[in-house]
């Protein structure tokens, strides 16, 4: 039997139409890969500043599409300023083999790089990453770590200028610094470079724990006309309430590196917006999770600085804040 040409075409059309209407097999959507993030925090878990930093980071991370329990799992470790604990927690996080680790400060990055030179690390608030040996250069880290530095050395001299401006009678300045952080030496040098022009005698004061902090401040306060500069470090940040209490007790004017010192009762602070840095760190974590290497991501300097004055503390110290200084402040606490 031969097909009529017309009928043959109709048959093929019918066959094609039938094929189109057949149900297609249902394909399961591939499950989104769960990624793992380690977070090493210098402060205690219940520290309000710690909670604010992690909150800012998580909010920014979510804006990049990372959601807890759906496509990312986060392991936290809080050291509370304890050096032994930070080393232990650094080893614990590395043993979990996360895709990337977020770490705070020299205090956190150093112990991490002692146990891994391969797992990606994004840091926030590191002083002198090159001097600390964490990266080869700021522009090209050539390392398993990159992130955000917290100070340029030129800023350090500004602290001494602010101290003299808000407390003109100061002729002696003690620089409270975490003696475990090598980067503080560069900051100290910057402060020393401006001291002669301001007529101020400088006294570096290295501290390692609460006992040394109390002893150092008490001893320094015995000679009149003194003031303090508190340099960033895990120990001084973790024990900031103790420092502020001691400074108040001995009626010492003091300049601090971060806003949360002033909001906790410190006289004046000038430094980077750390919450902004944590938001920006989420961007680097996102880029690494998507395949980029820390070695290729440049270390970035702060883009936002804050000058905060606690006028209530100034009154308690008998200081009149100059109007020009108040006009420059980003925030005044009454």
Briefly, what is this?
This protein is an alpha/beta fold and 334 residues long. It has 13 helices and 12 strands.
Topology:
Elements: H1 5-21, E1 35-41, H2 48-63, E2 72-78, H3 83-95, E3 100-104, H4 105-115, E4 121-126, E5 145-149, H5 153-166, E6 172-178, H6 184-198, E7 201-207, H7 210-220, E8 226-230, H8 234-238, H9 240-249, E9 254-256, H10 259-263, E10 268-272, H11 274-289, E11 305-310, H12 311-316, H13 323-328, E12 331-333
Parallel strand pairs: 1-2, 1-3, 3-4, 4-5, 6-7, 6-8, 8-9, 9-10, 11-12
Antiparallel strand pairs: 10-11
Helix pairs in contact: 2-11, 3-4, 5-6, 7-9
CATH class of the largest domain: Alpha Beta
- Give helix % range: 40-55%
Which architecture of the largest domain would the CATH scheme give at its second level? Answer: 3-Layer(aba) Sandwich
**Structural Rg:** 28 Å
Strands, count: 12
Number of continuous helical runs: 13
Q: Tell me the CATH superfamily of the largest domain.
A: Response regulator
What structural category characterises the helix and strand content? alpha/beta
Mean pLDDT: 89
How does the overall form come out from the CA principal axes?
elongated
The main pleated sheet reads as: 7 strands, mixed
Stretches where pLDDT falls below 50 for ≥5 residues? 1-26
Query: And the CATH topology of the largest domain?
Result: Rossmann fold
Order of helices and strands: HEHEHEHEEHEHEHEHHEHEHEHHE
């Amino acid at each position: 039997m031969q097909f009529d040409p017309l009928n043959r075409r109709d048959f093929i059309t019918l066959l094609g139409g039938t094929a189109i209407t057949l149900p297609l097999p249902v394909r399961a959507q591939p499950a989104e890969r769960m990624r793992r993030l380690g977070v090493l925090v210098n402060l205690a878990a219940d520290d309000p500043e710690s909670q604010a930093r992690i909150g800012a980071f998580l909010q920014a991370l979510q804006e990049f599409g990372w959601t807890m329990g759906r496509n990312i799992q986060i392991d936290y470790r809080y050291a509370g300023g304890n050096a032994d604990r930070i080393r232990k927690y650094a080893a614990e996080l590395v043993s979990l083999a996360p895709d990337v680790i977020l770490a705070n400060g020299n205090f956190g990055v150093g112990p991490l790089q002692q146990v891994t030179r391969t797992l990606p690390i994004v840091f926030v608030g590191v002083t002198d990453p090159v001097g600390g040996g964490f990266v080869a250069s700021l522009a090209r880290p050539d390392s398993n770590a990159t992130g955000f530095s917290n100070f340029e050395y030129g800023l350090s001299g500004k602290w001494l200028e602010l101290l003299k401006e808000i407390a003109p009678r100061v002729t002696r300045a003690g620089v409270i610094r975490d003696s475990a952080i090598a980067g503080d030496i560069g900051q100290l040098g910057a402060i020393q470079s401006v001291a002669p022009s301001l007529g101020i005698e400088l006294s570096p004061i290295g501290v390692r724990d609460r006992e040394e902090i109390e002893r150092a401040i008490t001893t320094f306060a015995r000679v009149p006309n003194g003031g303090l500069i508190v340099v960033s470090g895990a120990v001084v940040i973790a024990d900031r309430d103790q420092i502020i209490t001691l400074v108040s007790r001995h009626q010492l004017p003091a300049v601090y590196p971060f806003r949360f010192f002033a909001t906790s009762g410190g006289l004046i602070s000038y430094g980077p917006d750390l919450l902004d840095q944590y938001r920006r760190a989420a961007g680097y974590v996102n880029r690494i999770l998507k395949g980029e290497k820390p070695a290729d991501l440049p270390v970035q300097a702060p883009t936002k600085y804050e000058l905060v004055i606690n006028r209530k503390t100034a009154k308690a110290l008998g200081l009149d804040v100059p109007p020009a200084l108040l006009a420059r402040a980003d925030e005044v606490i009454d």
